[in-house]
Structures are given as C-alpha cells and as structure tokens.
Amino acid sequence: VSTVEATPFEQVMVAGGPGVRALMDDVERLLERIASGYGPELGDGAGATLAAGGKRLRPLLVFICGGVGTGDPASRGALLHAGAAVELVHMASLVHDDVVDNASLRRGRPTVYAASGRAPATATGDFLFSRAFALLEGDARTGQVRTLADACLALARGELAQRADAFDMGIDADRYLHRCELKTASLFAAACRLGALAGGTGDEEALQLFGRRVGLAFQLLDDVLDVAGDPARTGKQRGSDLLDGTVTLPLILAARSDPELAKLDLHSLQSREEAEAICNRIAATGALSETRRRADELVNAAKDELDGALPKETAALLNLVADRVIDRYS
Ligand code: IPE
Ligand code: IPE
Ligand code: MG
Ligand code: MG
User: Fold this and answer.
1) SS3 sequence of 69-88
2) Ligand 1 centroid to 184 CA: how many Å?
3) Which of 184, 271, 311, 313 lies 20 to 30 Å (CA to CA) from residue 203?
4) How far apart are CA 238 and CA 214, in angstroms?
5) Interval 188-206 mean pLDDT
6) How far apart are CA 46 and CA 224, in angstroms?
7) How far is the CA of 98 from the centre of ligand 3 (A)?
8) Per-residue confidence band for 2, with pLDDT thresholds at 50, 70 and 90
9) What is the mean pLDDT of residues 1-26?
10) Is residue 54 lining ligand 1, measured as CB closer than 6 Å?
C-alpha cells in the first residue's frame, strides 16, 4: 500500500498507550465500514481516498483531547464517533478541495476528481459530509453537532475566500492568515473541542485555542511543502498552489525581497516545470525558513495554552503532537 507518509504520529500513539491505539484502529474500521456501506457508486472514491492513507491527525487530536486513558471509559463510544466524524469532514473537504484546486494527486494516488471527474467527486464529498453528521446523531445534546457544523461553515468560507483571492499578488499576510484560519484551523479547533465535549473533560476552551493555533501552523507548513516538499513524501505535487493561483505566505514573503517575484503574473504559469522554477526562486529568498519560523511561533503559543489548564498526561501528548507537526516539515 502506498501510504505516503506511513505514520508520522507513531511516537504520539506509543506515548498515548493502548487506549489511543485501540481507538485509532477502531476509527479506521468504522471509516471502512461507512465508505463501503452505501454501494460502489458512492463508495469507490471514498474507499480509495481512505485506503490511500493520510495521517489521521484530526481523530488523534479528538482522542487525546477527550482524555483517552485518563478520562471516563464510558465516553469511549462518543469519542470514537467524534473522531470518525472529524476525519469524514476532513476527507470530504479534501475530495471537494481537489475539484476546486484542480488537483491530480492526493495521498500519492489520483484524486477522485482526476480518476472519475467533477460530478462523482462532488457527490463523494457530499456523501462523506452527510455520514459525518449522521455519526453525531446520538450526541447532539453536548453541542458537538454545532461545533462540527460551524467548522464546515468556516471551511466553505475559506474555500470561497481563496477563490476570491486567486491570482491576486496584492493580498497580504493578514488576509492569507484569515483564509488559513477558515479553511484549516477551524477544523483543528473543532477536533479538539469535540474531544473535550465527547470525553466530558470540561477543557474545551483551552483545547479549542490549542487546536486553532496548531491548525494555523499546519497550513503554513503545508504551504511550505507545496513549494519544497518531496512528492514521494507528501503525496502531492509541488507548485500546485501557484498553478491554481493560490498566493500563500512563502510567495508573499518572497515577493518582498525578489522584484521579479513581485511582478509575477500567476496566469502566465502554464506548466508544472514553470511552477517548480518559481518554487525554487521562492526558496532562494529565505521565505521558507521565515514561514517555518512563524509556524514555530504559533506552535509555541499553542503549547502555552495548555499550561496549567489540563491533566499532565493530556498536555504532554498534545505537546508531542505539536512538536511532530513542526519537525515533520523541517
Ligand atoms: C491536508 O491535510 C489539507 C490541509 C489542511 C493542509 P493533511 O495533511 O492532514 O492530509 P492527510 O489526511 O494527512 O492526507
Ligand atoms: C487545505 O488547503 C484544504 C482544505 C482545508 C480542504 P490546501 O489546498 O493547501 O490543501 P492540499 O494541499 O490540497 O492538501
Ligand atoms: Mg488543495
Ligand atoms: Mg496545500
């Protein structure tokens, strides 16, 4: 199986103990059952996306924030549903994002869009979104449905904002960060909040803020990988953001010191090779290390949110997740 980045959070799973590992295994089985439970038309694209792997970082956050191993064992079922629901929303957003971004490769394999076309990819995403909310049916009382629905709303706004900004070299770092908040940080925040709600740990505010900051850092680093990541590792092609007109922080920073980049017309990029040449030019300005430095700061701020607010074991595991997010990209 071509799992691109086999298990980048393996260290966290080991530290989390058998409770976390068992839930991660169960979430996988539940996702497989859901993907294959509604016939091949809806299931093929979903099953392929699932089988291609992925880091499963969001369910891991749900389980840790839910106090697995330290919390009330009675909350296990609710945590399992919450973890699977967040991963389903994530998968749905990826399948739709690949339509919007015109992407050909995801998790080292052809995207649903590339393999089957726009309509099947749209339907596959809709299917995954619907099953996410069905999983939370029994847990509505605790505010989980609203939490996940709010994250979906932010996602939709983020994708729209990204389209509105496409090809515009005038967008600044603040606007970029706002977009990242919407499209990525919101789901990380929701994962952490859902964990706290499902686990009944009562730490939702601190955990939500932690998730938001780590999620923002995560998107900054994903944007670094789009410029400089090895496709064999990321499972995605370099230069994709440039080709679909997405102006990210590396380019915004690089344009400050390279006048040729500042004058760049993204519409003029026609091929993968041209985009990769611009990627190399961005890298030559030092903009990638500056973007990584900012991600570092965000992760440190995320860790500060945990100080004194949580049981020691939970905080230690979340610190480990935050560190792994950073060193995966260094
Ligand atoms: C990709 O997320 C989309 C972003 C928010 C950057 P991941 O990098 O978590 O994707 P998978 O699930 O591991 O494939
Ligand atoms: C994150 O942005 C997409 C979603 C939150 C759906 P990207 O467009 O950068 O994600 P990748 O690089 O395609 O995974
Ligand atoms: Mg994309
Ligand atoms: Mg990306």
Assistant:
1) CCCCHHHHHHHHHHHHHHHH
2) 9
3) 184
4) 23
5) 93
6) 27
7) 5
8) very low
9) 82
10) yes
Interval 203-224: pLDDT, tens: 899 999 999 999 999 999 999 9
Distance, in Å, from the CA atom of 37 to the CA atom of 17, rounded to the nearest integer, reads: 31
Instruction: Round to whole Å and give the CA distance between 246 and 171.
Output: 10
pLDDT band (50, 70, 90) for residue 5: low
Length of the chain, in residues: 330
Return the best residue to mutate from 4, 58, 88, 97 for the ligand 2 pocket (most ligand atoms within 8 A of CB): 97
Q: How many helices, marked H, and strands, marked E, lie in the chain? A: 18, 2
Tens digits of per-residue pLDDT, 125-166?
999 999 999 999 887 667 999 999 999 999 999 999 999 999
Q: Tell me, using a 6 A CB cutoff, whether residue 109 lines ligand 2.
A: no
Q: From the CA of 97, how far away is ligand 2's center (Å)?
A: 6
The answer to whether 16 and 68 are in contact (CB under 8 A) is: yes
CB of 90 within 6 A of ligand 2: the answer is no
* Phi-psi map region of 188: left, alpha, beta (phi>0 left; psi -120 to 50 alpha): alpha
